[in-house]
Amino acid sequence: MKVLVIGPGGREHALVRSLLADPHVSEVHAAPGNAGMAADVPTHAVNAQDPDAVVALARELSADLVVIGPEAPLAAGVSDAVREAGFNIFGPSKAAAQLEASKAFAKDVMAEANVPTAMARVATTAEEAADALDAFGAPYVVKDDGLAAGKGVVVTEDRVTALAHAEACFAAGGTVVIEEFLDGPEVSLFVISDGKHAVPLSPAQDFKRIFDGDEGPNTGGMGAYTPLTWLPSGFVDEVMERVAYPTIREMAKRGTEFVGVLYCGLAVTSRGVRVIEFNARFGDPETQPVLARLKTPLGALLLAAARGELDDAEQLHWRPETAVGVVMASANYPDSPRKGDVISGIADAEALDDVFVLHAGTAESDDGETVTAGGRVLAVVGLGQDLVSARGTAYEGVVRISWDGAQYRRDIAEQAAEGRVHVPAQGQPAPGSAEGQAN
């Protein structure tokens, strides 16, 4: 089959690489893609958020399956237009993507479906925000209600900072969701859904802060690893039973079947599993290490979901290795990322065994050089027999790549590799906490 992947980033490059490895897939195209995808497959310079342009490209290619990577095209209704044009589409409708586009909507769905989540209030004024902050107390968690590319949440002990973030959202015409703080480590679980049936992928953990030690501002994500050997036995089954299936059934009940990836952002707390947030697509950077371990053909899996035939799909099989992904970001990220810096060493890194370099914010210059073109530039994924060796492999790849101002965290998966991730006992607060409360 012929597959068209929509999106420009590292998540999409990971999807492209996995689809190319699927024997059922004869051809892969990307739009708009990036320099890394352009080296692997044909790319097409279309606006990923323009439904008509994406439909026209799907027709031109006679695509058998269209896969939408990022959240913005989903919120723009691209999947609706592609579906109405008669194509198999992997990606939820605009209405279903409200699970990500509006945190208030997601909270309403979870309440109706009896899904465990943080207590929350929606605020539209500074007075309402102040009341909610005082009701929940510190640490304060304030989230922009809309899409914020992973950077719309503030978690702080400082009430003034929390209220200032809420007021900035109000000034921009938005609303905020203020939540209780969740103790315990965070987990990302991608669930493939065809609207009725669901299949979980391997849980991962990502790192949202820009600096080592979970310091500095939130980003879209600076690295991730999988699997998570410290999770309690039966964790995935519990999430499917208490979170994924109730949410998918509630969405179907509302007439908005969810076809695509239900990204469950979770906290393993002293009161059990709690949903921090939902996203309506594969997460970045978790997708890169998760798909590096997937042995089951990805194209066949996504097509089965698009056709509502997931219950007939083959059981998933995984490589036994551990995967660690380290994001390399441009100078000045996440504030005002610098573009145009020449990147060297990618081929040297990819020459290493069990190292994969996935492009995100890259482009090709007029003279044929690969240059930075966004905040998060590359993800370097390393495979190993355990976390220690996978980290070593990933960082061995990272140090071979350079450009002016390149930055990356040196502690991705370090705590887990050293056995220092603490899952709180029921009724006991955790020494650590859900460091970012997602985005």
TrEMBL record:
Catalysed reactions listed for this entry: 5-phospho-beta-D-ribosylamine + glycine + ATP = N(1)-(5-phospho-beta-D-ribosyl)glycinamide + ADP + phosphate + H(+)
Xref: SUPFAM superfamilies: Glutathione synthetase ATP-binding domain-like, PreATP-grasp domain, Rudiment single hybrid motif
Pathway, per record: Purine metabolism; IMP biosynthesis via de novo pathway; N(1)-(5-phospho-D-ribosyl)glycinamide from 5-phospho-alpha-D-ribose 1-diphosphate: step 2/2
Entry coiled-coil feature ranges: none
Gene3D superfamilies listed in its UniProt record: 3.40.50.20, ATP-grasp fold, A domain, ATP-grasp fold, B domain, Phosphoribosylglycinamide synthetase, C-terminal domain
EC number annotated for this UniProt entry: 6.3.4.13
Region (Disordered): 419-439
HAMAP family: GARS (MF_00138)
Protein name (Swiss-Prot/TrEMBL): Phosphoribosylamine--glycine ligase
Taxonomic placement: Bacteria, Bacillati, Actinomycetota, Actinomycetes, Micrococcales
Gene name per UniProt: purD
